[in-house]
Amino acid sequence: MDDMEFQNYFPVWNKLDTAHQGQILGTLITRTVKKGTVIHNGSNDCTGLLLVKSGQLRAYILSDEGREITIYRLFDRDMCLFSASCMMRSIQFDITIEAEKDTDLWIIPVEVYQSIMAESAPVANYTNELMATRFSDVMWLIEQIMWKSLDKRVAAFLLEESAIEDSDTLKITHEAVANHLGSHREVITRMLKYFQNEGMVKLSRGTIELTDKTKLEELSET
Questions:
Q1: Whose C-alpha in 22, 92, 154, 199 is 20 to 30 A from the C-alpha of 11?
Q2: 116 with 12, same domain?
Q3: pLDDT tens digit string along 91-149?
Q4: Same domain for 93 and 161?
Q5: Is 107 exposed, middle or buried (0-12, 13-18, 19+ CB in 10 A)?
Q6: CA-based diameter of the chain, in Å?
Q7: Of 161, 134, 125, 157, which is closest to residue 50 (Cα–Cα)?
Q8: Nearest 5°: CA angle at 33, between 30 and 35?
Q9: What is the pTM of this model?
Q10: Residue 106's domain spans which residues?
């Protein structure tokens, strides 16, 4: 990964003056992380702003009982603000970010980004837009949890995962599905067995095959 590539990936690069561009390039950190690596862990961990070159990250929160729930995922060219939560004093919840796949990314140190944001309207505007987008993601998630039954959420998740992987055969455990949806593995296993009985999926060890996507789509939309 070189700096020239970063310039093509950072959304408001061309709106920065040369001093700010030099400041970012002079402090930029490049990282390659393996699948399963925890990159950021809670509000006490101020990693910096993450920009994904290629790969896939997952941001999730933990309940007091240790149950996980995914709040959003990050793909190529996506930027993560919550990994710099110390930059936003009003954030009172801990977010964990882990690599779902091997990932190449850049890290912009918090103090550098903060100082540029204070002087650059385009960067401040971009940051606010990004925050609004993430807030919308979280609000959507709350609506799903409050108003949508679990069978619909599981169906929607399987379809989303199929689209991400571009495959109807998903290499994913019941535990992983539960962690994404904030549920228990036993509950997800029961639900998936029901889906199998209805002919929507076929289950084998560590694999869920989508056998009737039309039925899953109808269920997720009802």
A1: 92
A2: yes
A3: 667 889 999 999 999 999 999 999 999 999 999 999 999 989 988 988 989 988 899 99
A4: no
A5: buried
A6: 62
A7: 134
A8: 155
A9: 0.85
A10: 3-129
